[in-house]
Amino acid sequence: METTTTKPREIFLNGNQAAEYLGVTRRTIGNMVSDGRLRAYRIRGGRDLRIRRSDLDNVLIPVDAAAID
Fold it and tell me: Helix-turn-helix domain location, by residue (predicted)?
């Protein structure tokens, strides 16, 4: 019996969806892309950006409970 493993399909969000996902504005997403904190992709021949959901998860960092005022 032969088994095959399929790679999970990567989920991409547009700028508005990414902003909603993180709870920030679309402008904040644009700033994060511009300054290199977030990687974005463009569909060949298109204008709109797409951002991997996993990249959005990676910009979130855990906060030590003692650091919260």
Answer: 13-57
Q: Is the overall model pTM greater than 0.90, yes or no?
A: no
Max Cα-Cα span within the chain: 58
The torsion region of residue 29 among left (phi > 0), alpha (psi -120 to 50) and beta comes to: alpha
Contact 32, 59 (CB under 8 A): yes
Contact 39, 55 (CB under 8 A): yes
pLDDT at 20 over 90: yes
What are the tokens at 15? 């700028």
Q: For helices 26-34 and 15-22, give the axis angle rounded to 10 degrees.
A: 100
